[in-house]
Design goal:
It comes from Callosobruchus maculatus. It is found in: Mitochondrion intermembrane space. One of its GO terms (molecular function) is flavin-dependent sulfhydryl oxidase activity. By secondary structure, the protein is mainly alpha-helical. The protein has a domain of 94 residues: Four Helix Bundle (Hemerythrin (Met), subunit A). It has six helices and no strands. Helix 2 packs antiparallel against helix 5.
């Protein structure tokens, strides 16, 4: 079985245009490619977790779990969706509070980063990154 990194690379090569010198410049109003989609999706998910209630109701907990589960069924990158479904079986969403959800999501994102050979994020900084802004004031 191919590794996730290899599968994603193969999927990208099928969907990408000619990368030679004669390649046409990509317009800014094109459909999202896999990398743009992933970046945007992680931004949405982390922002949702950052604004999730500290004390969610049972309905909010259920809704968030359903949202993430449904995302794993309808996510446009089929390999990514398959990997997410497998991960959710092993480590289902933790929705008890904003902190718990944000930390669970950060760990999930780091698992994906490791599979893709990307840098791991320090989850102790997740609220600074996605909710409060950096302590140096650069987000003010």
């Amino acid at each position: 079985m191919k590794s996730t990194k290899k599968k994603l690379k193969d999927e990208n090569s099928v969907n990408s245009a000619n990368n030679g010198d004669d390649a046409i410049a990509r317009r800014p109003d094109c459909p999202l490619d896999k990398n743009e989609l992933g970046h945007s999706t992680w931004g949405l998910l982390h922002t949702m977790a950052a604004t999730y209630p500290d004390k969610p109701t049972p309905e909010q907990k259920c809704d968030m779990t359903q949202f993430i589960t449904l995302l794993s069924k309808f996510y446009p990158c089929h390999i990514c969706a398959e990997d997410l479904r497998a991960e959710l079986k092993v480590d289902p969403p933790k929705t008890d509070s904003q902190e718990v959800l944000s930390q669970w999501l950060c760990r999930l994102h780091n698992k994906v980063n490791i599979k893709l050979g990307k840098e791991v994020f320090d989850c102790s900084k997740v609220n600074e990154r996605w909710r409060d802004g950096w302590s140096d004031g650069s987000c003010d």
